[in-house]
Automatic annotation (TrEMBL):
Record keywords, A-Z: Lyase
Assigned protein family: Belongs to the DapA family.
GO MF annotations, alphabetized: 4-hydroxy-tetrahydrodipicolinate synthase activity
InterPro entries in the cross-refs: Aldolase_TIM, DapA-like
Positions of pyruvate binding: 54
Keyword Lyase: yes
Protein name per UniProt: Dihydrodipicolinate synthase family protein
Catalytic center residues: 145, 170
Taxon lineage: Bacteria, Bacillati, Actinomycetota, Actinomycetes, Kitasatosporales
Keyword Lyase: yes
Length: 305
């Protein structure tokens, strides 16, 4: 069996979701993307998810997603880093399998399976969907991205029993009690549990068994996300909550209007720092001018407590 220890360790950390910068002609801005990845690596980030939701997965073409994976791995290699790459795959089963195989060929060791967007999902169907993908790449670590509260711990346990390479779960249901129950019913130690709702939810999810959390904010201020991680690992809840209070306005702005601003706010912050353009693809939109100024003021005023 494949030893997934390095991959499991990387999941029990800040799992960065890089943004996808675009040029003014709506092309993938490869140079800006590479700069952002280098910045994350220099900061000490150990897990990166190209083609995640903050990467605008569903707005990218298959070719752009392939290029993003290649660029990420190239920067990791150039930096001599041991960071792990968790490639986002999804949509129909053949497309997800093809993307997973491409990721493996490029050198990635893990894939994250985006939540199925099909409107009719049964528990058995959810298991079958992920099992088909995991069995196609038995030497890759597989991490389901779970946003559906109807998926229970028993279903996750069945998937894990059938597929040893399913090593973690990115849990993004905004219900801590549900998370605690699902994690224990599935196997608290069998999987690495990643809090999939970023920094605002990380303290409460860690108290219930998570050991890693995803982040879009880390693109903007890696030191802030890593400070949250360090406080949570140390069991220093007051320190974690001081970071929480610092970034709360930023994360709440991202969550407005059913998370319509999730990626928009991150890109606006990066634009304010001169790191990439604010351009974003439909169905998302850029922020109005008043909110742009608000974001710029936030990020330029951040100081760790």
């Amino acid at each position: 069996m494949t030893d997934f220890a390095p991959q499991r360790a990387a999941l029990a950390d800040v799992v960065a979701i890089p943004v996808t910068p675009f040029t003014e002609n709506d092309q993938l801005d490869q140079e800006s993307y590479r700069t952002l990845i280098r910045r994350l690596l220099v900061s000490g980030v150990q897990a990166l998810t190209p083609n995640g939701n903050t990467s605008e997965f569903y707005a990218l073409t298959p070719e752009e997603r392939r290029i993003e994976v290649e660029l990420t791995l190239a920067e990791v290699g150039a930096a001599g880093s041991d960071a792990q790459i968790l490639v986002g795959v999804g949509q129909d089963v053949p497309s997800a399998v093809a993307s997973a195989l491409e990721a493996r060929a490029a050198g990635a060791r893990m894939v994250m399976v985006h939540q199925p967007v099909h409107p009719y999902v049964s528990l058995d169907g959810w298991v079958d969907y992920h099992r088909a993908i995991a069995e196609a790449v038995p030497d890759l670590g597989v991490v389901p991205y779970l946003r559906n509260p109807a998926i229970d711990g028993a279903a996750i346990a069945r998937l894990g029993a059938a597929c040893p390479n399913v090593i973690g779960v990115k849990y993004a249901v905004p219900d801590v009690v549900r998370f605690a129950s699902v994690a224990r019913d599935a196997g608290l130690d069998r999987f690495v549990w990643v809090a999939g709702l970023a920094e605002l939810w990380a303290p409460s999810y860690f108290a219930s068994g998570a050991t890693g959390f995803t982040s879009g904010l880390v693109n903007v201020a890696p030191e802030v996300s890593l400070a949250m991680r360090d406080a949570l690992r140390a069991g220093d809840h007051p320190a974690a909550m001081r970071v929480w209070e610092l970034i709360r306005p930023f994360e709440e702005l991202r969550a407005e209007r059913q998370s319509a601003n999730n990626v928009t706010v991150v890109k606006e912050a990066l634009a304010a720092l001169g790191l990439c353009r604010r351009d974003i693809r439909p169905p998302s939109t850029v922020l109005p001018p008043a909110e742009r100024e608000r974001v710029a003021t936030m990020v330029k005023g951040w100081e760790l407590p």
